[in-house]
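discrete fold record:
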Amino acid sequence: MGPFHRRRLPVAGMDELGAYRVLRVRDDVEAAAGQFAMLAAAERWGGGEDERPLFARAFSVARQAGGESHYLLEDVGPGTKRLCELRAGEAVDVVGPLGRGFRPPGEGRRALLAGGGVGTAPLAILQDELGAGAAIVLLGFRDAAHACGAELLRDARMATDDGSVGHHGLVTDLLAEELSGERGPVEVYACGPPPMLEAVRSLCEQRKVPCQLALEAGMACGFGACFGCVVPCRGGGYLRVCVDGPVFDGEALERIEEHA
């Protein structure tokens, strides 16, 4: 778990990656695969009379290299638009890294990474930790512009909704194919939108394959105070994505709802 206080850090650069941007921040605090940080531009946020947001945004750490932390962004609203505008020399306020990350696969099992959209981010740093060739990688995107996000990882099989790159369909089609194959025991690691994660959870439950799911959720605080990111757990009750996750064992979850 990283520091809970807000750290003002310099932006090292912003890289274009098709429909996405990769924000590079100079940071000497180590993050584990699956952890996230709460990010806000230090100046000129662009919301309200004083141009300050009510909340920061949560982003998975996509990579750490050369004294930098990298975050995968997509301009989908005022908050993300402002973050995408950041350039080298500006500053960003960071809280984190936060949350519980991925665990290594069980003995004798090979990692199988399945990502959708910006959910590719935590799988990139996980692949770095596992090492070259240690994992099977399956990624799904909306179209060719978004499929450029696959460049964060190595040796990925891809699916796109419109068929412009790779398999015409869903990444879960590729996952079902892999789980039906003869590669030997695997452990699935997945991150993406809620419908995709629910499909992954259900597939793994049916095939009795262990899975670790990194949930995406809107968060107000990032450290368990607001209870705005709860998800139902198996057997009753709720878990907080920010502190109990964002990575959960699939068998611990009753279902993955749209808001998660």
